[in-house]
Amino acid sequence: MNEQSRISELKGIGEKTEKLFQKMGVYTIGDLLRYYPRGYDVYEEPVSVGELEEGKVQAVKGVIYGRVQTGGSRNMQVTTAYVKELTGTLKVIWFRMPFLKNTLKSGAPIIVRGRVIDKKGQLVMEHPEIFSPPENYEVKQGTMQPIYPLTAGITSNAVAKAVRQALDYLDLSRDFLPNDVRMRYHLAEYNYALHGIHFPLDKQEFYHARQRLVFEEFLTFILALRQTREKSERAENGFAIEKKAQTDAFLAALPYELTGAQKKVWEQIETEMTGSYVMSRLIQGDVGSGKTIVAVLALMLAGLNGMQGAMMAPTEVLAKQHYESVTELFETYHIPLKAELLTGSMTAKEKRLAYERIAGGEVQIILGTHALIQEKVVYQNLALVVTDEQHRFGVRQREALAGKGRIPHILVMSATPIPRTLAIILYGDLDISVIDELPANRLPIKNCVVDTSYRQTAYQFMKKQVAAGRQCYVICPMVEESEAMEAENVMDYAAMLQEEMGNGICVEALHGKMKQTMKDSIMERFSRNEIQILVSTTVIEVGINVPNATVMMVENAERFGLAQLHQLRGRVGRGAHQSYCIFMSGSKTKETKKRLEILNKSNDGFYIANEDLKLRGPGDLFGIRQSGLMDFRIGDVFQDADVLKMANDAANMILDEDPAMEMEKHRRLKEHLEEYCASTDLEATL
After folding, report:
1. Could you give the 3-state DSSP secondary structure of residue 413?
2. First-to-last CA distance in the chain?
3. What's the pTM?
């Protein structure tokens, strides 16, 4: 058995269980070892009743106070007890455990551990674990139990059991990181890191294990990025593109003037597209900074020169919105170009006709989703591809798109405000432009950070906004132990909110487990104001533009990274009306308040990203990933900024010493790099 072996070679994993693992992207033993926990259940020291925080799993040590009572219906019996200690008394309830009435005695010492919730202004612990006598808790105190991302039908314990088996069977002593790199950056060995990330004995072991795995992930990515850069560097511009007076006339006719930053970036793009070499450029711009109009100008330049330009959006709804706005612009300003929409949900006949128009050169601007790069699409003369940060193209994809050997210009748009030092490392294959001004006609979003006591006030405010014709978002985090419960959480919240809002307001739920067609349908209805309040997970973070939405309320805001909260906030403030963002926090700690206050004070994403980096200490590495940017398995470019810089230094050191990585000490790293590129299709993600 080795890391390439099928998961079914482990004991206890039959055909049915193997299929469940495959649903989670786990096909081989290697996949399993790199299927890292999304968090840990940490048995901390018990706290007093006065120190309890809503939403957190905590332990309390005290004595049973008074009688234990059982009530509720036959199907849902509820057992209620009170645990008393010096600072107060905590109400505790259990479901379907009536026998506790006979086992929990008044005055008996006890430790209870569970999630604390707020019920009508009173903190209650629901269905906690019981440790009686309290000494039983000491055995678990300080331990960390892994919590894995799951699919329905599989438990965290089942994943942990399979991982333990794999760790016991495999020889993991071969380390692909060169010894001098490991020593220089004080990194743990591969074997230690894998044990330590899945089953850490304590937080210290977890930090060491995680740092090693984050480092190797970033190093591999950066080395692969450098290879891609070498292949594509200074490719000659195969398109005869000239500057066109129509673009200047179009800009002069617009009812607003571009900001200085927009003008500067447009000049850079125009110069490169008409220059000697192929453009590979990233436009970094905060939400609402006007990246799209600059991209449209680039598409127009390609089209007006008799060539084609394609723009790929992350969702069908956004692709349609781009298509409609581009078509309207061309009609309004008499631009002699035709646009085409191409998405996965179109009928076979619609797609066939679109393919014919694209191949025949009848249309110059093609807008769509990843359907734009499917095999059946043949472009007549594709000179420019505009994508977002989720769809970066490597050399092979560029060549496949070009078809006739002429590599198209690439423009990547990013609304994630990454500090420049990190952007240079992450986007090493691209030149970087920054749009750091907001258009003058944008009303700044009004923010407030509140605790849960403000919830009813927030609901009333949303009712007033809807009465004025506006729309609202409510974002719910993943709070259950199983991610399979995500849909239920959002659905339950939406049902509760519908009851709160009454029949005159349509509340709808949206979550990641829905089929894409269902998601698109809900987003379409929301964009037409058929839905007034959309309750969602972070699936709406990108890919929807509803200028009429003026309220963004984020439940449990402390559970998100600042970069992600800022992205969510970017869904409002897109129209002529004043917009508001309500960050509702279930935590009252000073650290949480300090972090969220950054968002309260500023709408500037770059400022927020830099402040967020300053606030982060080693303790912030523990727990849930923050940004989700570029979909690293374990690394996070904000949390792990220092490790990213270390990995970049190490890549420089390795390539300076051994550009082709042919030395014996780099042999295993080179093999690992080749496996990484083959398994992840790096160029599909770059």
Report:
1. strand
2. 32
3. 0.70
